[in-house]
Amino acid sequence: xxxxxxxxxxxxxxxxxxxxxxxxxxxxxxxxxxxxxxxxxxxxxxxxxxxxxxxxxxxxxxxxxxxxxxxxxxxxxxxx
Amino acid sequence: xxxxxxxxxxxxxxxxxxxxxxxxxxxxxxxxxxxxxxxxxxxxxxxxxxxxxxxxxxxxxxxxxxxxxxxxxxxxxxxxxxxxxxxxxxxxxxxxxxxxxxxxxxxxxxxxxxxxxxxxxxxxxxxxxxxxxxxxxxxxxxxxxxxxxxxxxxxxxxxxxxxxxxxxxxxxxxxxxxxxxxxxxxxxxxxxxxxxxxxxxxxxxxxxxxxxxxxxxxxxxxxxxxxxxxxxxxxxxxxxxxxxxxxxxxxxxxxxxxxxxxxxxxxxxxxxxxxxxxxxxxxxxxxxxxxxxxxxxxxxxxxxxxxxxxxxxxxxxxxxxxxxxxxxxxxxxxxxxxxxxxxxxxxxxxxxxxxxxxxxxxxxxxxxxxxxxxxxxxxxxxxxxxxxxxxxxxxxxxxxxxxxxxxxxxxxxxxxxxxxxxxxxx
Lengths: 80, 426
Description:
The structure holds 2 protein chains of 2 kinds. Chain A is an alpha+beta fold. Chain A has helices spanning 24-28, 53-65, and strands at 9-14, 33-35, 41-43, 48-49, 71-76. Chain A is built from 2 helices and 5 strands; from the N terminus they run βαβββαβ. A 3-stranded antiparallel β-sheet of chain A has the order 4-1-5, covered by helices on one side. In chain A, a hairpin with a 5-residue loop joins strand 2 (33-35) and strand 3. Chain B is of the alpha/beta class. Among the domains of chain B are: 21-214, 3-Layer(aba) Sandwich (Rossmann fold), CATH 3.40.50; 309-410, de novo design (two linked rop proteins) (Up-down Bundle). Chain B is 40% helix and 12% strand. Chain B is built from 15 helices and 10 strands. Chain B has a 5-stranded mixed β-sheet, sandwiched between helices. The mean pLDDT of chain B is 91. The A-B interface holds A 13, 15-21, 36-40, 42, 45, 74 and B 176-177, 179, 327-331, 333-334, 337, 365, 368-371.
């Protein structure tokens, strides 16, 4: 239990059609999400290693905190 | 049989009115049976999609072929959202049965029992041609896949494949979010193969005469022919068929274009400007991508020396911003902002340097953040304009705009802007 190997990385992905620019993701995961001048998220595209637990946790907060449920975490298997 | 290197191939036998089924069978008569399956021939031919993205058709066919489903669809995309493109209507006005042949071959390859032909409803002449062609086929035989004609509204993004499929699936013609590519688009539960009308016509030729014959024109890397719509500074706007890899200069000369243009817009309104002294380049994706352009949907807009590239870009950008589906924030807000910046740059603004910097910045911000490629296309257009017309832009920024920017002569066809609430999506 709790022994999932933290290999590889993850990226946060937004569905731009659902997104209405509430900006909660920027509040919850400032490490990964920037806001453009119209209030829509600019998300870090280079994968973050899964071992980076604090960032992963804030990414999870962002996913759960999105009022439009437009965010999801996507695992990237090949390390780039 | 048409010889494998004679040039009007897709438009063969066109005489101003579409060939009837009997005439078509006669013109494109098969003299010998080809060996091997059609899919083998399609793979050997190396045909790439002619709608703009140049995706290998055989790969797409295989992908849909491998899908499960009893109710597969083949969609012939003749929406022709680009205002400067006339190739699909020309093709359907000349050889509609060749396109339908191709669609039937494709349906046989993927195992589809429905063919949907999509033509914009603003194009009643082509709708008539197709209705007649489909009727002729149904009178001859009722076997084979069912062919239906559909007429979505004409919008720039309505021809985007996910928007088109979404419309055919009884929704609005809005692009869909596809996080993973390639994505299988579906109508109901049935997987859908979407191909441009010109691609279908090429499949029709490959199915009839085989890959060997089809590769008789074009280069090794980019075989076949392409329909080129030339507008702008030409004696009259034309659609001509050219083999891929022939020089740009010869294509322009055949099209009756200005022999010494300032610049060319290649590919369409989401395409790229190239400088007018690059005319000796070969017209194929391989050579054009070195200078940042593509064949795209086969559109060339010729800008003469006495035109203003900045004004043209700004007009196109304004229209493209208005044609956004307004689903994604970066596109809905970003493109109008960019278009506004461009008009400030064209007509003396207070701080031109700041405006220029803002355009470059906003291009970087908006890129790759839409559900479809609409914003990316506009950004490609604007970036190439900043590059190709850099001297002219410097003059505009000094407060000495070119005389052309004040005249009313424009070269890129841009439809009238519609008010946002009047845009029809269903």
